[in-house]
Amino acid sequence: MWGMEIGDVLMNIAGHATLTKELHRISSVFAGLFDDSQDELIINRTSTLSDTIMGVSIGYFLTDLAMIFYNYPALGGMEYVIHHGLSMSAIIQSLLSGQAHIYILMVLFTESTTPFVNLRWYLDVAGLKNSKLYIYNGVALFLGWLVSEYTFTGLSYYLAASGLTNVKLVFPLGFYSLLTVPPALAMMNVFWFSKIARGMVKTLSKARHRQ
To answer: Cα(first)–Cα(last) distance of the chain, in Å?
Structure first.
């Protein structure tokens, strides 16, 4: 009995150590986006690449908002407007202040599944809901959402918690935005992920019955 409990504890410790190592490895990749010659703390580091990614992201969110309003509410309701508004607010603050670029980039990578969401709508409107492309897109959306949302959202929280001293150096509005915006987006994403999962199961069940 004691041997089993000790074994479980050791496995949990080993699992935690592996997870921490992987999180550190991924965070190192993001840190590599910035110039090491800068003397500032990572919270204050910027680069041409990070500025470009954020600028393109603002353009994307504005374009997506225009599509949402034009097709309202077919592409999404007010929750999508709030989501995009919060995202653009955080990006603009980071760009103007030159702070927290690494944290914003972490959260931005969770939006990499949005093209699959839009493609799903286009296929539905085009009457291709029973096509193989619709099924493949749904599976890709589910897997991509699962990986990007939980990996990068968890990583952003890990970095913020491990570097809390640095986070406190962010200007006041940016600091409170870092504490509130990511959790708000995460709650929305959990709700949408549950809908995606149910939709994928429903689509796969229908495809199986047609066979």
So the answer is: 50
C-alpha to C-alpha distance for 82 and 188, rounded to whole angstroms? 10
Contacts of 114 by beta carbon, 8 Å cutoff, 6+ apart: 60, 64
* 1: its two tokens: 């009995």
Look up residue 92 and give its amino acid: I
Largest alpha-carbon pair distance within the chain?
Answer: 64
Distance CA 165, CA 29 (A): 21
Tokens of 98: 């030159």
Per residue in 120-148, pLDDT (tens digit) is 888 888 888 888 898 889 888 888 888 87
pLDDT (tens digit per residue) in 61-75: 999 899 889 988 887
Distance CA 152, CA 160 (A): 12
Sign of the Cα pseudo-torsion (166, 170, 173, 178, in order): negative
SS3 assignment for 12-76: HHHHHHHHHHHHHHHHHHHHCCCCCCCCCCHHHCCCHHHHHHHHHHHHHHHHHHHHHHHCCCCCC
Cβ atoms 43, 106 nearer than 8 A: no
| 129: DSSP letter | T
> In angstroms, what CA-CA distances link 170 with 2, 70, 101, 149?
48, 37, 11, 24
Assessment of whether the complete model's pTM goes beyond 0.90: no
Residues of the chain with pLDDT > 90, as a percent, come to 15
Q: Which residue has the tokens 């407007």?
A: 81
